[in-house]
Structure formats: structure tokens, C-alpha cells
Design brief:
Elements (H helix, E strand, L loop, with lengths): L2 E2 L2 E3 L2 E3 L6 E5 L7 E6 L3 H20 L2 H17 L1 H12 L3 H21 L7 E2 L6 E9 L2 E5 L7 H12 L3 E5 L6 H12 L7 E3 L4 H10 L3 E7 L2 H13 L3 E5 L4 E5 L5 H13 L9 E7 H17 L18 H16 L3 E4 L18 E4 L6 H4 L6 E7 L2 H9 L3 E2 L1 E5 L3 H10 L4 E4 L15 E2 L11 H5 L1 E9 L2
Parallel strand pairs: 1-5, 8-9, 8-11, 9-10, 11-12, 13-14, 13-19, 14-17, 16-17, 19-20
Antiparallel strand pairs: 2-3, 4-5, 6-7, 7-22, 15-16, 18-21
The structure holds 2-aminohexanedioic acid.
């Protein structure tokens, strides 16, 4: 029997008021229902917003280090459960067990980082132009904040949005993605057991049209942080900022890697495979375009094909699986749709390209890791985010040509260069239009202590993670204190 999960409102685990539920299906084996969850309506999210409002004064009044201590305790609880949580994450989202556990441990790191950040909620002092005046700033919380999180990092993203909000003294209503909500239930349980006061963090599952919209439009919600598609993010940003609240959106990517002629081909292939294929390419930081110097393009492509074809695709919870399924049928169809679009646009499939069928593959949503060649910049597969294990190889002659190609997209999240050439490396860092730049490393991955976010269409600008995230969840009060 699948476990029946509940909403977490005002410190109580409760069903949707309507009693409606939806099923959470394992994408590796769709005969398995991993859990059922409340299909909440507006009344449920309104109750959560009210609970968050009620919890706010006491939470705001608690000292920041005391708030941090709760996070630190939750880190220990979650770390002890990393195996179990990772397993649930794999079952509901599809990524492999090491990825599921790794993401859980990343959330532990986030808890630890923000526990420490509680002691670094600093303001600034300034020399005043007036006599006997102490001039300084303090950071204050915004109030109730709403978080709308995606399925592809179902525990790390709820953590990296909720924790800076909480540590800064806000109270939270979290709406996790309906495809993978158990992971965020684990986060809420760890915080609850660590002593988070009732109503401080509330979790409500259900459709975006009810839960998400209410968070976007309710005047009691002072800020909304969202990660997801550009289409939804752009609309949300307009709605939330239109009513004068703060909004932070992390959206898609179309991340390039440039491989210069001095690159070690094996190393370049390894990091392209990791960046493009791990987590089934379902990351906004995934590598989707590789610009390779013509002199090594053939060797690079041959080795890439060999490595991609050797990848073990299967149920992420089985030992040895390297690439799990797509998260659901819609995502699978979208990935296969883009592969068709690429073919129709005249690109060539050098590896993969099909849905995997037969045997256990028929149980889930499996797709072959895919390599395209013959891709031109104006093709849709070179411009639009595919969010699947699909990468395009594009040979180049001159560095400028590679730079232009890398920047010729509306996205600007992450990028990488593979080379030992220091001059070119710094030129790349200077000219690439992305918020994250990697050198001799894959495009995906994010350490918890540094800002995360993109340029252009990828983000709305305010960074997540690290101390930067605290800026979004706080407002500055400037104090002129005359003591004469
Ligand atoms: C990573 O690259 O490990 O939704 C993190 C996403 C990003 C997070 C990527 N916001 O894929």
C-alpha cells in the first residue's frame, strides 16, 4: 500500500479539506504508486497562509542564532536518514540512488550553511554626516513567503529556498511539485522534529492553478520564489511584482561547453557526458550544446558516441544504473518530440534518439541518451530547453565563432570551457553571458555557499543560495540614531 501523505499546516499533518488526493507514480515502474497526496484547493492554501501569519511574530522575535540551531538539528536528523530519503527521492523522481542520496546530502549541507548564516545576518554601520549620530542598517524579514518548487531537485530546491527565508525570520508556505512531493515532506519532518514551531513552515500539495495562484496573488504573501519553466516563471513574475511583492524566478538553461583544441579529449567527453546525461538531463544546468574545435571534433564525437552508447539506462533504484527514466509521460513525450523536431530540422542523430522499449523498459519512461550533429544555431533544438538527455555537437574554426554560438540563445544560466589556455579562459569568463561559469568542469552542480542564478532569460536576477539568498528574503531598515 502506498503511504498516504498529508499537508503540513500550522504544525498539523492534515488532508485536503475536500478530501481529494492525487497519486505519485514511480517513473521507473509506473505500476508502482509511491504515495498519495492531498489535492489541495484554495481553502487549504489559505489555511496555510493564515498559519504562517500567526506564527510570524514569535518566529521573528526569536533570536537568529536560536533559529539557526533548529536548522542545525534538522541537518543531523536528515543526515541520519539520507539513505531512506534518497531512496524515496529516486522512487518518485527517477534519478539514480547515488543522485538521490547525493541530493539529500546537499540539503544537509544547505541546512548546515544556513544554520551558520543565522549568525551572519549582519547589517552595516556608516559614518554619518551629522554630529552624534549612529547610522546603521539592519536586515528584517519580509513576512510570509511563498515557495513554488520543481520536481527535478525535489529536496535540494525546497531546502535552498526555505532555509534562507526561515533563518532570516520569515514564515513559509511551500508548494512542492506534484510529481515529487515526498522529498519535501522529509525536509518538513526533519525541521518539525528539530523543533521548528508550528506554522513556521507549511507544506501544501496540489495543482498550480489553485495552490500556486493563491500564493502568487494573496496580499499576505510578501515574496514568491519559483523554479520551473520560463513560460510559467514569466507569467508569475508579472503577477507577483504587479501587486508589489518580491519575486524570484529560476528558469531554464541552454548551457554551452566550448572545447578548445588543446583540450584533453577524454576529459572533455567525460564532463560533457556528466553535464548532459546525468539525472537524465533534467537539470536547468544541463549541458545541451558543445562547441568543439574542428581539429579534434571527429575524435571528440567518436568518443562521445562510444561513451553515450555505453551508458546504462534503467531503474534508478537498481545498482549500476547510470541514467534513470524521464520523470513522467509528458516529459518523455516532450524529449522525444524535440528529437523529432531536430531530425526534421535536418540535424543528424549520432547516438540514441529513441524511446527504450522491451522488458523492464516497458514499465517506465525510458529514453536513449542522444547525440546530435549537424546542428545550426537557428534550429529549435539549438535554442529551446529540451530537459532531457540530449546534446548537440557543433564544430568551430575560430574562438569568436564559438563564443558567438555559445551566446546566441535567450538563456544564460551556466557554461563551461575545456582548455589549459589561461588567456582564452579569462576571455571566455569575460564574454560569456551566463551567471555561472565552469572551467574544466561540467556545467551542472552548485555549491551551497555561493550565489546561484543566471543571466538573460534564465533568471530574474536575484540570486539563490549562499548569503545572496538572504538578500531576497529580507528588507533593509536604515536607522539614524541621534544621541545628543
Ligand atoms: C545543479 O546543477 O546541481 O532546477 C543544480 C535546476 C536548477 C538547479 C541545478 N535550479 O535544475
Amino acid at each position: 500500500m502506498a503511504e498516504a501523505y498529508q499537508n503540513y499546516i500550522g504544525g498539523e499533518w492534515v488532508d485536503a479539506q475536500s478530501g481529494a488526493v492525487f497519486e505519485n507514480i514511480n517513473p521507473a515502474d509506473i505500476s508502482e504508486t509511491v504515495g498519495t497526496h492531498p489535492e489541495s484547493g484554495r481553502e487549504d492554501v489559505l489555511a496555510a497562509i493564515r498559519a504562517a501569519e500567526e506564527a510570524l511574530p514569535a518566529w521573528r522575535a526569536m533570536s537568529a542564532p536560536a533559529r539557526g540551531k533548529i536548522l542545525f538539528k534538522a541537518a543531523q536528523i536528515l543526515e541520519e536518514r539520507a539513505e531512506e530519503v534518497g531512496r524515496d527521492l529516486t522512487r518518485e523522481e527517477g534519478k539514480t540512488l547515488p543522485e538521490g542520496k547525493g541530493e539529500t546530502l546537499r540539503s544537509v549541507e544547505l541546512l548546515e550553511w544556513y544554520a551558520g548564516e543565522a549568525r551572519r545576518l549582519t547589517g552595516e554601520t556608516y559614518p554619518s554626516g551629522q554630529p552624534n549620530t549612529f547610522l546603521y542598517t539592519v536586515k528584517e524579514p519580509l513576512g510570509v513567503v511563498g515557495l513554488i518548487t520543481p520536481w527535478n531537485f525535489p529536496i535540494a530546491i525546497p531546502a535552498w529556498k526555505a532555509l534562507p527565508a526561515l533563518v532570516a525570520g520569515n514564515t513559509v508556505v511551500l508548494k512542492p511539485a506534484s510529481l515529487a512531493p515526498i522529498s519535501s515532506v522529509h525536509l518538513a519532518r526533519a525541521l518539525e522534529e528539530a523543533g521548528l514551531p508550528p506554522g513556521t513552515l507549511n507544506l501544501v500539495t496540489g495543482p498550480g492553478s489553485a495552490v500556486g495562484d493563491e500564493l502568487a496573488m494573496n496580499p499576505a504573501v510578501k515574496a514568491v520564489s519559483f523554479t520551473g519553466s520560463n513560460a510559467v516563471g514569466t507569467r508569475l513574475y508579472g503577477a507577483v511584482t504587479g501587486r508589489g511583492a518580491k519575486c524570484q524566478c529560476e528558469m531554464g538553461g541552454k548551457n554551452p561547453v566550448i572545447v578548445l583544441k588543446d583540450a584533453d579529449v577524454e576529459k572533455a567527453v567525460d564532463l560533457v557526458v556528466a553535464g548532459a546525461m546525468w539525472s537524465t538531463g533534467q537539470k536547468c544546468t544541463a549541458t545541451s550544446r558543445v562547441f568543439v574545435h574542428r581539429s579534434i571534433a571527429q575524435a571528440f564525437t567518436d568518443l562521445l558516441i562510444e561513451e553515450v552508447e555505453a551508458l546504462k539506462v534503467g531503474d534508478g533504484s537498481k545498482e549500476g544504473t547510470q541514467i534513470g527514466p524521464a520523470v513522467d509521460e509528458r516529459q518523455l513525450k516532450s524529449i522525444l518530440g524535440y528529437i523529432e523536431i531536430g531530425k526534421n530540422e535536418g540535424a543528424e542523430i549520432a547516438a540514441g534518439g529513441r524511446r527504450l522499449t522491451g522488458g523492464d523498459y516497458d514499465k517506465g519512461y525510458y529514453v536513449e541518451p542522444t547525440v546530435f550533429t549537424g546542428v545550426r544555431s537557428n534550429m529549435r533544438i539549438a535554442q529551446e530547453e529540451i530537459f532531457g538527455p540530449v546534446v548537440a555537437v557543433v564544430p568551430f574554426e575560430t574562438f569568436d565563432e564559438a563564443m558567438d554560438g555559445a551566446n546566441d540563445v535567450e538563456y544564460g544560466l551556466s557554461a563551461s570551457i575545456v582548455t589549459g589556455d589561461l588567456q582564452r579562459t579569462f576571455e571566455y569568463i569575460d564574454r560569456i553571458e551566463t551567471g555561472l561559469v565552469h572551467v574544466n568542469a561540467q556545467t551542472a552542480g552548485a555549491e551551497v555557499q555561493v550565489p546561484f542564478g543566471g543571466y538573460k532569460g534564465s533568471s530574474t536576477g536575484t540570486r539563490e543560495q549562499g548569503s545572496a539568498a538572504v538578500e531576497f528574503y529580507t528588507q533593509i531598515k536604515t536607522v539614524y540614531l541621534h544621541f545628543d
